[in-house]
Design brief:
The chain is mainly alpha-helical. The chain has eleven helices and no strands. The longest helix is centred in the first third of the chain and has 27 residues.
Length: 224
């Protein structure tokens, strides 16, 4: 492995250690009561080193959420432009769920700790909602690009709003483990796809998908 590769691995280990220390301290003694000095001390680094990785306590507490949003946007950008917008969003999320199912136990535990912390800390929940709204604007811009419309186009905003609402509904349920969270998200995506009219997310004026042909027996019954 190159020196650059070794440095990057060391940086990632330090970042992970700071996240783990912060989450454990936040959950054991409270978010407000925990200081950056205490987090740094747990990892045996200086506060100055902490600030090389994170701008604040909120930044480290919400870092996993921010990372997941970056990964999701990258998945969406990589989806084929031939996919309808909602399908591209859904398939990007399914790719993310697949990644989550394959992560090791330590990373899964880290994610669930962060979820518990956010949902038990009003200031962090507010911070998470700010991140979601900021990310929603980026998703609207990407969906608009795919649709060939401006970001202020109402249909692009509607498509993303429906998708984001599914995520919020998923997060409002119990978070006993990561696999359960992934299953609930998949169930909600499937329910949405079954409930929404085909073509609802296509640009105005686009050809709508052909309806499914009726079974021969149903047509005969109607004729009778």
């Amino acid at each position: 492995m190159t020196a650059v590769g070794l440095r990057e691995r060391k940086k990632q280990r330090t970042r992970d250690a700071l996240i783990d220390a912060a989450l454990d301290l936040f959950l054991s003694q409270g978010y407000e009561a925990t200081t950056i000095d205490q987090i740094a001390a747990e990892v045996e680094v200086s506060p100055r080193t902490f600030f090389r990785y994170f701008a604040s306590k909120e930044d480290v507490a919400l870092s996993l959420t921010a990372d997941e949003q970056e990964m999701f946007l990258a998945e969406l950008v990589a989806r084929p432009l031939s996919e309808p917008p909602f399908a591209a969003l859904s398939q990007s999320m399914r790719a993310m769920l697949g990644i989550l199912r394959e992560i090791d136990g330590a990373e899964a535990g880290r994610i669930m700790k962060a979820q518990r912390l956010v949902h038990s800390t009003p200031s962090l929940l507010a911070g998470a909602m700010r991140l979601i709204r900021e990310n929603e604007r980026r998703l609207v811009a990407e969906v608009a690009r795919r649709m060939g419309t401006a970001p202020d186009d109402l249909q692009s905003q509607l498509v993303v709003s429906v998708f984001v609402s599914i995520g919020l509904l998923c997060m409002n349920g119990p978070t006993e483990d990561l696999n359960g969270l992934a299953r609930r998200y998949e169930d909600l995506l499937t329910l949405a796809e079954r409930s929404l009219r085909p073509g609802w997310d296509l640009p105005v004026g686009s050809a709508e998908p052909e309806p499914e042909p009726e079974p021969a027996s149903a047509s005969a019954s109607a004729a009778g």
